[in-house]
Write a structure and sequence with these properties.
This protein is mostly helical. It folds into two domains: about 160 residues, Hypothetical protein af1432 (Orthogonal Bundle); about 210 residues, Hypothetical protein af1432. It has 24 helices and two strands. Helix 2 crosses helix 10 and helix 23 packs across helix 24. It is elongated. It starts with a strand and ends with a helix. Bound molecules: fe (ii) ion (3 copies). One fe (ii) ion (FE2) binds next to helix 14.
């Protein structure tokens, strides 16, 4: 099976979620990609190399899910703890063949030029270009937040020039100093132009047949980034994806779903919590009840998910189902307050899968619940009219299997473990 989408548009849109980790500064990866392209263009490098640098720029911090880690990387110009996220990001990318070529430069994107120059080839140059653009952006972001970017340009140029020959390749720094004399280099980093740039790139990407396997691969990759945000949500999205697909299969006949619906349900499961990357770690891991401001922030994640996914032509259904995972049939859900028929069956299934998996998993304020307790909670929700009765019945009729899928237990161990609960 395949869907009619462009893989590069999917990657570009999903990479947007990585930038959310910056909380209030949400274009870091895109700016790094744009600057890297500009520097390569100045050096007369090929369009192919520019495209690779752009993608690597968007994804270079795929190993960063935590807002605390992000802050460290931004506050310290040459932080000694920076290698961990580079290794982790490269490791994740290496496991997904269509993006595996980006893993080697991303692994080295915080390595000083002095450590690379003895084995300097195209990978090392790409890595050092990312490092350079990344550090320029750290300086530029501070100036932009103070609304003084153009005024700060001479200081930024001087600081970068001071690291030519130690942190950075002198040839790359020379190209940067050349291109950054133009105001246009800096003005392109503002929010509006960054978004225009992204739109321009995606307009050029034709929709083609992309196999479901490839789409599952990219969705899994980003689900790992989201789930790595908190130790409590490891494999949450994967569990939701598995359950949603399974329930879709059980309801195929009665709710007129087909194989494509089930496949899209799985993708929506992987991606439903993308917007959570914008929530500060301290709120997601808070052991006690949330205050009003914190609750509002958490509630915004489904909307962020919608924004990201609805930018992918061919993902319209997936965007809606994923973003509606906190909507309830009575209109009291969030953030769209959909009611009755406005809420498609696929979104209702996804919501059931989300609740079930969360209950079956440990949370900061409670331990993981056994299968029969999870079912009792689901029943209460159904009794209040917030969960369709046939979805509840499907879960109740296959409780051990759904529980096994939630906990990602292998079939042999799944059954006894769930029953012993
Ligand atoms: Fe980084
Ligand atoms: Fe970065
Ligand atoms: Fe979730």
């Amino acid at each position: 099976m395949s869907l009619f989408v462009n893989l590069r548009s999917v990657v570009h849109a999903l990479s947007d979620s990585l930038d959310l980790v910056g909380i209030n500064d949400v274009h870091h990866g895109k700016r790094v990609g744009i600057m890297a392209v500009d520097i390569l263009r100045t050096l007369g490098r090929s369009g192919e190399e520019q495209a690779m640098a752009f993608d690597a720029g968007l994804l270079h911090d795929i190993g960063v899910s935590s807002s605390d880690l992000h802050r460290q990387l931004v506050e310290d110009f040459d932080w000694e703890g920076s290698q961990g996220h580079a290794e982790y990001g490269a490791h994740m990318l290496a496991g997904f063949p269509p993006l595996a070529h980006l893993a080697p430069p991303i692994r080295l994107h915080h390595t000083h030029w002095t450590e690379l120059r003895d084995r300097y080839g195209s990978t090392e140059r790409m890595a050092n270009l990312l490092f350079l653009a990344d550090r320029i952006d750290v300086l530029a972001a501070v100036a932009m937040q103070e609304d003084r970017l153009l005024e700060k340009v001479p200081v930024i140029r001087e600081q970068i020039a001071g690291h030519a020959g130690d942190m950075f390749d002198p040839d790359l720094v020379a190209a940067f100093l050349d291109v950054s004399r133009k105001e246009s280099f800096w003005l392109a980093l503002e929010s509006g132009p960054v978004l225009d740039y992204m739109e321009h790139v995606s307009r050029d990407a034709p929709q083609t047949e992309t196999s479901l396997e490839v789409l599952q691969g990219v969705a899994t990759l980003f689900s790992h980034v989201v789930d790595a945000k908190s130790r409590f949500t490891v494999e949450h999205s994967e569990g939701v994806a598995r359950i949603a697909r399974y329930l879709g299969g059980l309801l195929t006949e009665s709710r007129h779903l087909d194989a494509e619906d089930c496949a899209k349900l799985e993708l929506a499961g992987y991606l439903h919590d993308l917007g959570k990357l914008r929530i500060p770690d301290a709120i997601l891991d808070k052991p006690g009840p949330l205050d009003e401001r914190e609750r509002r922030l958490i509630a915004s994640h489904a909307y962020e998910t919608f924004r990201i996914l609805s930018r992918i032509p061919g993902f319209e259904d997936i965007a809606r189902w994923a973003a509606f995972h906190h909507e309830t049939p009575d209109g009291e859900g969030y953030p769209f307050h959909l009611k009755g028929d406005e809420l498609p069956i696929q979104a209702r299934i996804l919501r059931a899968a989300d609740i079930f998996q969360a209950l079956a998993q440990e949370r900061p304020y409670r331990s993981a619940l056994p299968a029969h307790v999870v079912l009792a909670h689901m029943r209460q929700i159904a009794d209040k009219g917030k969960l369709d009765r046939d979805i509840y019945d499907a879960i109740a009729g296959h409780l051990q299997e759904v529980y096994r899928l939630a906990r990602s237990l292998p079939p042999e161990t799944g059954r006894p473990a769930a029953q012993s609960d």
